[in-house]
Amino acid sequence: MAIIDVTIPDIGDFDEVAVIELLVKAGDKVRAEQSLITVESDKASMEIPSSHTGVVKEMLVKLGDKVERGSLVMKLETADAAAAAPATAAPPAAASAAVVAAPPLAAVSVPAVIAPAAVAVAVAAPAHQPAAALSGDLPHASPSVRKFVRELGVPLSEVKGSGPKGRISQEDIQSFSRAVMAGETRTQAQAAKAPAGDGAGLGLIPWPKVDFAKFGPIERKELGRIQKISGTNLLRNAVMIPAVTNHDDADITELEALRVLTNKENEKSGVKVTMLAFLIKACVNALQKFPQFNSSLDGDALVYKNYWYIGFAADTPNGLMVPVLKDADKKGILQISAEMGELAKKAREGKLSPGEMSGATFTISSLGGIGGRYFTPIINAPEVAILGVCRSTMEPVWNGKEFVPRLMLPLSLTWDHRVIDGAAAARFNAHLGQILADFRRVLL
Ligand code: CAO
User: Fold this and answer.
1) Is pLDDT above 80 for 134?
2) Whole domain around residue 160: which residue ranges?
3) Do 327 and 427 share a domain, yes or no?
4) For the residues of 387-443, what is the DSSP string, one character each?
5) Residue 141 belongs to some domain of the structure
6) In this model, does residue 395 exceed pLDDT 50?
7) Neighbours of 348 (CB within 10 A)
8) Which of 19, 160, 258, 308 is 20 to 30 A from 197, alpha carbon to alpha carbon?
9) 178-206 pLDDT tens trace
10) What are the angstrom distances between the C-alpha of 183 and each of 149, 178, 189, 203, 305?
11) Per-residue pLDDT tens for 336-370?
């Protein structure tokens, strides 16, 4: 047995955040990863999960306290003797990111997640990263209230909050539900019957409820924390962004030869160069040529970013994470490869800090190491485009006189049609293809 001090982890660029909810009390048993408290900045709220399994001996924060990285949250008794050193709570997940999240907090805490359409449908929207522009009008409610809302299927946007700044409480949700039951409030179903052009709500029919056990044996398993978080982000991004995907192929025959040679020459360095490092560099070049792809929507304005931070999706045992390679424009292929290797390792070990997952201006999702042909990645808001890459294959390509064997890389660029149009996307892909076909163009 050991008593450990649980403290606030790195929560990104915030000096102080307020404790708005205590989710456990002294005497409660908690599991590692279980949410302990909810904190809130003026832009977003997030839950702070426990780093260990154990019993809460003493709560050291109360509602309204201001906390920052390193602040004591509680004393926890744990059976893990190795944990005797002060423990930082596990990195937080912005459970409410789907709705409240506004950068940077949501961006800090939510894995971006980008999925092929099939995956996205299955998870129905990983917790969804933040569209900066989205935050303004979204209802204010804590993650646990949002969870309650999801369980009841209540449309949060239709609920009036009675708390400070219109914050919605559990009581508000209950009153709303009672009013709906009593017929005093219009439901989504009623909204759906509204005349065409009314535009209220999505008017969706309820999610099908099926008793699968009627048909055969089943097993029910809770989704992991990362899956839940990324799910809500994905759903928000899939529903709110008018996204289009352009598919293309790039001839990487010469680039692959250069990659193999580079790896041979750097064998002793321990750094392996994969096609993804070249893609990051090539994308930076294309983003500089077509700056709207490196922008974000903010209301009626576009924010152009003069820095190039490239997120890349990493498949981990806990789910999809998106570490961010910062200042990719200032780095060479070997440095990019080394940093990518480190970030991917940290992602797999669950050791990425929020800062290492924030600030991306464009994301690449590469399934090249696995296979596939093309897919339709979901944009990681508030970014406006994402590149999906699949496995390269040797193909017969007509050169005007004959078919020649060329190594072709399938590219899938998804873009936000509010910001980018089809012609620009086709030009972006064509430019990317030219660079990948002759990497010397990066110098031009
Ligand atoms: N075509 C052919 N081969 C490719 C390739 C491509 N486009 N991309 C990578 N490869 C090869 C690599 O060269 C490597 O070959 P060797 O084993 O012979 O050295 C092998 O595939 C494995 O590469 P890798 O996956 O380890 O390295 P990477 O830099 O390409 O990718 C990372 C790193 C972290 C992005 C990757 O490991 C990963 O997690 N990919 C999955 C991302 C994902 O899940 N995206 C979908 C999100 S939507 O749900």
Assistant:
1) no
2) 116-182
3) yes
4) EEE---EEEEEE-SSSEEEEEEEEEEEEEETTT--HHHHHHHHHHHHHHHH-GGGGG
5) yes
6) yes
7) 15
8) 160
9) 676 555 555 444 544 544 455 556 788 89
10) 19, 9, 12, 18, 49
11) 999 999 999 999 999 999 999 999 999 999 999 99
Residue 144: inside a domain, yes or no?
yes
Instruction: Return the residue whose CA atom lies nearest to atom 20 of ligand 1.
Output: 369
Contact between residue 136 and residue 109 where contact means Cβ atoms under 8 Å apart: no
**Positions marked active-site:** 417
Same domain assignment for residues 91 and 177:
no
Q: Which residues pair with 398 in a beta bridge?
A: 403
- Looking at the structure, tell me whether residues 102 and 10 fall in a common domain: yes
Residues 66 and 43 occupy one common structural domain: yes
Q: Which protein residues are within 6 Å of ligand 1, measured from CB?
A: 114-116, 119, 274-276, 312-315, 320, 344, 365-369, 389, 391-392, 409
What was the pLDDT predicted at 82?
63
Q: Whose CA is nearest to atom 24 of ligand 1?
A: 369
Does the pLDDT at position 137 exceed 50? no
* 375 CA from centroid of ligand 1 (Å): 15
Q: What is the percent of the chain with per-residue pLDDT over 70, rounded to a whole number?
A: 79
Asked if the structure places residue 221 within a domain, the reply is no
Residue 237, in any domain of the structure = no
292 and 398 in a common domain? yes
What is the CATH classification number for the domain harbouring 165? 4.10.320.10
For residue 392, give the ligand 1 atom closest to its CA: 1
Same domain flag for 381 and 258: yes
Which of the listed residues 366, 374, 391 should we mutate to test ligand 1's pocket, taking the one with most ligand atoms within 8 A of CB?
A: 366
Same-domain check for residues 426 and 278: yes
Its pTM stands at 0.66
